[in-house]
Amino acid sequence: MRARPSGSGPARGLLSAYGVRARLATVLLLALAPGCVGELSLDVPGRPTDAGARPGPPSVYLDGGPPPGPSDAGGLPPVGHDAAPPPTRDECGDLRTVSTVHFGTPQPTHLPMRPGQIYAVGSFNGCSGLVVGDRWVLSATHCNQRPGTRFCVDRQARNPQICFTVANVYREPSGSDLTLLQLSESVTARFPELEPVLPITDDLDASWVGRMTEAGGFGQQESGGFNEREFTANPISQLSRDRVVVDGRGRSGVCYGDSGGPIMVVADDGSIRTIGVVSDGDGTCTYVATFTRVDLYRAFIERHMGPIAPPGPPPCGDVTREGACVDGSARFCGPEDHLVVERCAGSCGWDFGANGFRCLSGPDPCGGLSPRGQCDGDTARWCERGAPRARDCGACRQRCATSATVGATCE
How many other CB atoms sit within 10 Å of the CB of residue 385? Predict the structure, then answer.
């Protein structure tokens, strides 16, 4: 995956537009409808196109073996990064901690995934996949895996070495871009720390549009590197037929070699679930990407691997007692160190009585601002433990932008 160039060079991440066009001629496997920016429409079933916005390069399958190396003379410019952390306060107002990694990252930036769940994202050395059961992997049909193919996972992010052989391949029979693969042996017997990430058991509907997701895979990065597990967080922009559509807005997304990799969410019960597998995307790897929905094909999945049981209360992981507001829910660590997720009928904000973020029956002291906050022109505004905070980015000759890691901040 890659990220859009930022500052003096491209930010490190899953996808970037730098130098991609020069490589497209040798990489395109199948030209589809053009990628887009802004509002999406569907001129071709299941393929996003633009309705008047600036067009992107053609949509392509994101697999087909290791991608070509960079063709730009002299290679890529140095990886950009943020300036050194600023002092605690200055004339610009309240400051926030700014991450040095913005987009594609070795660790998820939005989902509270445990290490074992991160290890479940694996590589076919040309495509990606997700362990969804002790001997089961979800991937994309167009990757054309066959019995005897090797699937590899690891604790380390680069060049996974714990490999398994595919014994059986079950392609979804209606023609969707979804394949379930059975491995020849138990994954957890050889790799006990790995935790399969189950398919979602909820039905996706319009209420899911706008929710943040995390996609993972071993695809090409902005430097031209390949076969390193990375993640990128982007919101759902559309649900169409059997597809989940996300738009990286020219900043980040999935790329060549990420095909078959998962797109994951926090389900309403608080568990981490996969809702789709990478199918295709635009040629820059930073705008529109589409994922085959798994909620529509649960019967197919369960017919082979058995019932997808709803989990018990998930552990808190990195979620604290204070908690946070995420996608209209209050998420906090409750009794017996179990994660509590409350869908809010009204607003979610700081509850002084609970000393944390909870669903509120009265007014929100932060007026709807979350800890991640939002940009108000060139001012970054956010909520910190019930207190509205702000930083005037323009006073520091900076601009307000939304970071995948900390939210509204100055850069």
Answer: 14
CA proximity to 138, closest of 78, 183, 102, 101: 183
- Tens digits of residue pLDDT in 195-223: 999 999 989 999 999 999 999 999 888 77
What backbone phi and psi angles, to 5 degrees, belong to 22? Answer: -65, -20
What stretches of 286-399 adopt beta strand conformation (E)? 288-293, 324-326, 329-333, 339-343, 347-351, 356-360, 374-376, 379-384, 387-392
Burial of 45 (0-12, 13-18, 19+ CB in 10 A): exposed
- Please state, for a pLDDT cut of 90, what percent of the chain lies above it: 36
Separation CA 130–CA 291 (nearest Å) = 13
AA identity, residue 384: E
State the average pLDDT for the chain: 76
Using one digit for the tens of pLDDT, what is the confidence trace for 47-91? 333 333 333 444 556 654 444 333 322 222 222 222 233 333 444
Q: Determine the Cα–Cα distance for residues 411 and 409; give it in Å rounded to an integer.
A: 7
Task: Give buried/exposed letters for 254-292 (b at 16+ CB in 10 A, else e).
Answer: bbbbbbbbbbbbbbebbbbbbbbbbbbbbbbbbbbbbbb
Neighbouring CB atoms inside 10 A of 84's CB total 7
Q: In which region does residue 37 sit, left (phi positive, over 0), alpha (psi from -120 to 50) or beta (all else)? A: beta
Residues 392, 376: contact at Cβ < 8 Å?
Answer: no
